[in-house]
Amino acid sequence: MLSCKDVTKLVSESMDRSLPLGKRIGMRLHLLICKFCARYERQLLLIRETARRLAATVEAPGEPLGETLSVEARERIRESIRNP
Question: What is the phi/psi pair of residue 58, to 5°?
Answer without folding.
Answer: -75, 135
